[in-house]
Amino acid sequence: MRLTEHPILDFERVRGKEITIYFEGKPIKAYEGETIAMALHAAGIRTFQHSTKKHRPRGLFCAIGKCSSCLMKVNGIPNVRTCITLVEEGMQIERQEEKPALPKTTKPPKWKEPPRIEADVIVIGGGPAGMMAAINARDAGAKVVLLDENPMLGGQLVKQTHKFFGKREQFAGVRGIKIAEILSEELKRRNIEIFLETSAIMLLQNGEEKLVVGVRKNKELIEFKGKTVVVATGAMERMIPFENNDLPGVYGAGAIQTLMNTYGVKPGDRVLIVGAGNVGLILAYQLYQAGVKVEAIVEAMPKIGGYFVHAAKVRRLGIPILTRHTILRAEGKEKVERAVVAQLDENWNVIPGTEKVFEVDVIALAVGLRPSIELLHQVGCQIKYVPELGGHVVIRDSRMETTIKGIFVAGDSAGIEEATTAMLEGKIAGIGAALAAGVASPEWLKEIEKAQKELEEFRSGPFGRKVLEGLKKVVVE
Amino acid sequence: MNEIPKYLREGYLSVEELKKYVGLPSEERLRQRPVAVPECPQEIPCTPCKEICPTNAVLMEHPNAVPIVDYEKCVGCSLCVQICPGLAFFMVHYIGDKARVTMPHEILPVPKVGEKVVLLNRVGEEVGEGKVVTVIPREKSKGDTPIITVEMPIELAWDVRAVKVVRE
Question: InterPro entries recorded for this chain (chain B) (predicted)?
Answer without folding.
Answer: 4Fe4S_Fe-S-bd, 4Fe4S_Fe_S_CS
